[in-house]
Amino acid sequence: MSVPEREPLRLMAVHAHPDDESSKGAAATARYAAEGVEVLVVTCTGGERGDILNPSFEVPEGHEFETIEGRRAVRRLEMAKAAEALGVRQQWLGFVDSGLPEGDPLPPLPEGCFALVPLEEAAEPLVRAVREFRPHVITTYDPSGGYPHPDHIKCHDVSFEAFAAAGDPDRYPGTGEPWEPLKLYYNHGFSMNRIRAVHEAVEGAGLESPFGDWVESRDAREIPERPVTTLVPVADWFPNRDAALTAHASQIDPAGFFFAVPRDLEVDVWPWDEYELAESRVPLPERAPGEYEADLFEGVRSEVPA
Ligand SMILES: [Zn+2]
């Protein structure tokens, strides 16, 4: 009798723009992929309205960055390199970046952009992707988007909708066999616990902290902190995260914010990626305050047929 192969675990990380997968939960996706989990990054938009945020960026030969199409092509090249660095598969949903509106009053969003697409229409390709890939766990952003970009808020909305609807045979007909994911998480890369710990360690080492203003402004604004439930140990995969970040050369300055904390210090002070468990369809143990889950697949591993 042959031993049936265990069904692989599958993780879907839904993000708004190319580069978000490299700045939020990146090391965790690299770790799970290295451990044999099938990992699919889903990117809602092409990042067509991201400005050049890296002064040392040079537009690749044969490309231009002035038009929507030109930026889309450049950012696709960057995304392919980032996915390779993380060891994950990646899929585009095909929506167009809404841009980050600035000014007072705020200008209207550009016609046809992701944030303006009605929810059911915007969620449909993600429901289809969930029914095709059949993830056990999905990660996305919290309802505020984690950062007030209209595409990040929309990314939450479509992910929440897909998590709720993909298993229901009456919803989204024609998008494949129903599939019910078991857990939904929100990325939390910048909890105050992390910022304070890293800030103090950097200053303690006599260096300039990138988080100084941040600590003060967050304290002043008294933004209620969302609960972190889950700390996944990922220090061994920080080099993959860093390679993925630098792959997004138009967006990430290798001398900038994301590289301002010395890596040896980061490994000592904050070797985790942080998440908030938003929904679970599997039973989970009770935890006392200050106790964290360490695995996105906790409670899932025993549910997946061997
Ligand atoms: Zn983004």
Automatic annotation (TrEMBL):
InterPro entries: GlcNAc_PI_deacetylase-related, LmbE-like_dom_sf, Mca. Keywords: Hydrolase, Metal-binding, Zinc. Zn(2+) binds at H17, D20, H152. SUPFAM superfamilies: LmbE-like (SSF102588). It catalyses: mycothiol S-conjugate + H2O = an N-acetyl-L-cysteine-S-conjugate + 1D-myo-inositol 2-amino-2-deoxy-alpha-D-glucopyranoside. Binds 1 zinc ion per subunit. It is an enzyme of class 3 (hydrolase). Its EC number is 3.5.1.115. A mycothiol (MSH, N-acetylcysteinyl-glucosaminyl-inositol) S-conjugate amidase, it recycles conjugated MSH to the N-acetyl cysteine conjugate (AcCys S-conjugate, a mercapturic acid) and the MSH precursor. Involved in MSH-dependent detoxification of a number of alkylating agents and antibiotics. PANTHER family: N-ACETYLGLUCOSAMINYL-PHOSPHATIDYLINOSITOL DE-N-ACETYLASE, N-ACETYLGLUCOSAMINYL-PHOSPHATIDYLINOSITOL DE-N-ACETYLASE-RELATED. Belongs to the MshB deacetylase family. Mca subfamily. This is Mycothiol S-conjugate amidase. It comes from Promicromonospora sukumoe.
